[in-house]
């Protein structure tokens, strides 16, 4: 079975999968599977990320730590 899960990756140097939204490091397999089964549109994903402190600058997504330094 194949599912798609939209994930934001921070565009800064640590954006090689280390910092994502949703934070996959803190999700167990069940939660990841549930998120893939009940997909969220890109607009909703970005809205939820913004509420969690993520932001966009020049078309790139940045985590809350990077946004605090911009």
Report on this model:
- It is built from three helices and four strands; from the N terminus they run ββααββα.
- The protein is α+β, with helices and mostly antiparallel strands and 70 residues long.
- The chain has one domain (8-68).
- The chain has a two-stranded antiparallel ribbon. A two-stranded antiparallel sheet has the order 3-4.
- The protein is globular.
Distance between the termini: 41 Å
- Biggest β-sheet strands, sense, barrel: 2 strands, antiparallel
Tell me the domain tally: 1
Helix content: 25-40%
Q: What would you call the structural class? A: alpha+beta
Calculate Rg over CA atoms.
12 Å
Shape descriptor reads globular
What's the tally of helices? Answer: 3
- Mean pLDDT across residues: 87
Strands across the major sheet, in which order? 1-2
Order of helices and strands: EEHHEEH
Q: Please give the number of β-strands.
A: 4
Strand content: 5-15%
Poorly predicted parts: none
Write the layout of secondary structure elements.
Elements (H helix, E strand, L loop, with lengths): L7 E2 L10 E2 L7 H9 L4 H10 L3 E3 L2 E3 L1 H5 L2
Antiparallel strand pairs: 1-2, 3-4
List its salient traits:
70 residues, alpha+beta, two-stranded antiparallel sheet, two-stranded antiparallel ribbon, 3 helices, 4 strands, 34% helix, globular
Précis, in short:
This protein has 70 residues and is α+β, with helices and mostly antiparallel strands. 34% of the residues lie in helices and 14% in strands.
